[in-house]
UniProtKB/TrEMBL annotation:
<keyword id="KW-0393">Immunoglobulin domain</keyword>
<dbReference type="GO" id="GO:0005912">
    <property type="term" value="C:adherens junction"/>
</dbReference>
<feature type="signal peptide">
    <location>
        <begin position="1"/>
        <end position="29"/>
    </location>
</feature>
<feature type="region of interest" description="Disordered">
    <location>
        <begin position="225"/>
        <end position="245"/>
    </location>
</feature>
<feature type="domain" description="Ig-like">
    <location>
        <begin position="23"/>
        <end position="132"/>
    </location>
</feature>
<dbReference type="GO" id="GO:0007157">
    <property type="term" value="P:heterophilic cell-cell adhesion via plasma membrane cell adhesion molecules"/>
</dbReference>
<dbReference type="GO" id="GO:0007156">
    <property type="term" value="P:homophilic cell adhesion via plasma membrane adhesion molecules"/>
</dbReference>
<dbReference type="InterPro" id="IPR036179">
    <property type="entry name" value="Ig-like_dom_sf"/>
</dbReference>
<dbReference type="GO" id="GO:0098552">
    <property type="term" value="C:side of membrane"/>
</dbReference>
<keyword id="KW-0732">Signal</keyword>
<keyword id="KW-0770">Synapse</keyword>
<dbReference type="InterPro" id="IPR003599">
    <property type="entry name" value="Ig_sub"/>
</dbReference>
<dbReference type="InterPro" id="IPR051427">
    <property type="entry name" value="Nectin/Nectin-like"/>
</dbReference>
<keyword id="KW-1003">Cell membrane</keyword>
<feature type="domain" description="Ig-like">
    <location>
        <begin position="335"/>
        <end position="420"/>
    </location>
</feature>
<protein>
    <recommendedName>
        <fullName>Immunoglobulin superfamily member 21</fullName>
    </recommendedName>
</protein>
<keyword id="KW-0325">Glycoprotein</keyword>
C-alpha cells in the first residue's frame, strides 16, 4: 500500500466532497401537440434532462379548472432496475430521458391540460427529492355530427296578398369548436347583411321594416281599380320600393272581398335582388360540443323563389371538406288522398288522410278541409290538419264532396274527394239521423213492436 502524498490526498477528498454537495439539476418539458380529432391516437411525450438519480415520474390529467388532478400514469424507480446505470456518482453526466403516455382513441372528455411531474434524488442526500414538472393542453376537436335545414315558424298561417318575411334555419350539432356556417342559393354564395347575436333568453328575431308591394289586377276589386285610374287609389307600380324586409299590414289593407280571391299568388313589386339578413349563434352542449344555428331571412317572392335551391354549408377544422344540407323551396302540387274504410257504411268512422304530393314540398304546408256546399259533420265550416275524421257517418252524407286545400308561402293547391256511403245491414234503413241516433217515428215504431212482442210472449 502506497498512500498518496498528503497534499494530493487532501485535494481528492476536497474534490469528491464538493462533487457530492453540488446540487443535482432537472429540467422537464412536454412536446407541444397540434389540435387532434376525436378518435385519433395521441402520444403525450415528456422530456427531462438530469444528472441525478431517478425517483419517480407521474402524469396527471387536470380537471375543474386545476382544482382536481387525476393520476393517469406512475413510474416508481424504487421498484424498477431499469435505471441502475444512474448509480455512478463519481461522474457528472447529463442524461436525457422521455416518458410517454398514449391515448389510443381520444374523446371529447380527454380535452384539457395534462402535467408531467419528475422527481430525482438530491446529490447531497438521498432523503431529499428534487421535483420539476411540465404541462400541456390537449385540444380535442370534433367534427359536426349532423346538419339540417328547416323553415322557421312553419307551418303557420300567412297572407297570399302580402309580401312577407321568410327564414331558413340551419342547425349544426356535435362540433367542437364552433363551425363556420354559410348559405348558398343555386350553388352560389349568398351575400347577406350580418345581424348581431341574440342575448341569452331572447326570443326569435322578427324584423318589421316595410317593403312596398303591389297587387296584380286579378286581386284588386273593381272599385279600387277605378279609383286608381283617377289617381286616388293604390300607388303606381313604377314607384321605387324602399329596401328592407316585409312587415304586417293593417287589417284594412287585407280586406279583400271573397269575389276576387284567387288561388294564384300576386306579383309583388320587389327590388331586383333579394336583400338577405344573416345571423349566427352557438350554444355549448353538456358533452363539450357546440350547437350552431344560422338563420337567413329575406322577403319571400313566390314568383322567383319557387323551386329555388338553398343549401347550408359548414366548414370545420376537423373536416377535410365542407358538410352540406340543401332544400328546394316548392309549392305543393297534387295532394294524394286516401280514405278508410274504402267501402264506408252507415255508422262507420271515416278517415280522409293526405299521404303525400306529386312533388317534394318545402316548407311544410298547411291543410284545410271543407265540405263543398255545406258544413262539416260536426257543424264547423272547416278543419285544419292532414286528417279529417267523420264519426258515425249517416246515410245523408252519401255523395258529399270534400275539399282539401294545401298551401305554403309559395303556393296553394286543392284536391277533392267524394264520400260514398253504403247501407249497413246491421242498421235498419232510416233509423239514424245526422247525429247517428234513432229518429223519432222509426224509433217509436221499433219500441212499440218490441213491447208488443214481449206482451204476446207473456200471455
Amino acid at each position: 500500500f502506497n498512500p498518496l502524498p498528503c497534499p494530493l490526498l487532501a485535494a481528492h477528498i476536497c474534490f469528491f466532497s464538493f462533487f457530492l454537495t453540488f446540487p443535482a439539476y432537472l429540467t422537464v418539458s412536454i412536446e407541444p401537440l397540434p389540435p387532434v380529432v376525436v378518435g385519433d391516437a395521441v402520444t403525450l411525450k415528456c422530456n427531462f434532462k438530469t444528472d441525478g438519480k431517478m425517483r419517480e415520474i407521474v402524469w396527471y390529467r387536470v380537471t375543474d379548472g386545476g382544482t382536481i388532478k387525476q393520476k393517469i400514469f406512475t413510474f416508481d424507480a424504487m421498484f424498477s432496475t431499469n435505471f441502475s446505470h444512474m448509480e455512478n456518482y463519481r461522474k457528472r453526466e447529463d442524461l436525457v430521458y422521455q416518458s410517454t403516455v398514449r391515448l389510443p382513441e381520444v374523446r371529447i372528455s380527454d380535452n384539457g391540460p395534462y402535467e408531467c411531474h419528475v422527481g430525482i434524488y438530491d446529490r447531497a442526500t438521498r432523503e431529499k427529492v428534487v421535483l420539476a414538472s411540465g404541462n400541456i393542453f390537449l385540444n380535442v376537436m370534433a367534427p359536426p355530427t349532423s346538419i339540417s335545414v328547416l323553415a322557421a315558424d312553419t307551418p303557420a298561417p300567412f297572407s297570399r296578398y302580402q309580401a312577407q318575411n321568410f327564414t331558413l334555419v340551419c342547425v349544426v350539432s356535435g362540433g367542437k369548436p364552433a363551425p363556420l356556417v354559410y348559405f348558398k342559393r343555386d350553388g352560389e354564395p349568398i351575400e347577406a347583411t350580418p345581424l348581431p347575436e341574440l342575448p341569452a333568453g331572447a326570443g326569435s328575431w322578427a324584423p318589421r321594416n316595410l317593403l312596398h308591394r303591389d297587387l296584380d289586377d286579378t286581386k284588386v276589386p273593381k272599385s279600387l281599380a277605378a279609383e286608381g285610374e283617377v289617381g286616388g287609389g293604390r300607388p303606381p307600380a313604377t314607384a321605387d320600393p324602399p329596401r328592407g324586409l316585409a312587415a304586417e299590414r293593417g287589417p284594412a289593407t287585407e280586406a279583400i272581398p271573397e269575389t276576387v280571391v284567387s288561388r294564384e299568388f300576386p306579383r309583388w313589386v320587389h327590388v331586383a335582388e333579394p336583400i338577405y339578413y344573416f345571423r349566427h349563434t352557438h350554444a355549448p352542449v353538456s358533452d363539450g360540443t357546440v350547437e350552431a344555428r344560422a338563420t337567413l331571412t329575406w322577403t319571400l317572392n313566390p314568383q322567383i323563389d319557387n323551386e329555388a335551391l338553398f343549401s347550408c354549408e359548414v366548414k370545420h377544422p376537423a373536416l377535410s371538406m365542407p358538410m352540406q344540407s340543401e332544400v328546394t323551396l316548392v309549392a305543393p302540387k297534387g295532394p294524394k288522398i286516401t280514405m278508410t274504410p274504402t267501402r264506408a257504411r252507415v255508422g262507420d268512422t271515416v278517415r280522409i288522410l293526405v299521404q303525400g304530393f306529386q312533388n317534394e314540398v318545402f316548407p311544410e304546408p298547411l291543410f284545410t278541409w271543407t265540405r263543398v256546399g255545406s258544413r262539416l259533420l260536426d257543424g264547423s265550416a272547416e278543419h285544419d290538419g292532414k286528417e279529417l275524421v267523420l264519426e258515425r257517418v249517416p246515410a245523408e252524407l252519401n255523395g258529399s264532396m270534400y275539399r282539401c286545400t294545401a298551401q305554403n308561402p309559395l303556393g296553394s293547391t286543392d284536391t277533392h274527394t267524394r264520400l260514398i256511403v253504403f247501407e249497413n245491414p246491421n242498421i235498419p234503413r232510416g233509423t239514424e239521423d245526422s247525429n247517428g241516433s234513432l229518429t223519432g217515428h222509426c224509433g217509436f215504431r221499433l219500441v212499440l213492436a218490441l213491447t208488443l212482442t214481449v206482451i204476446l210472449e207473456l200471455t
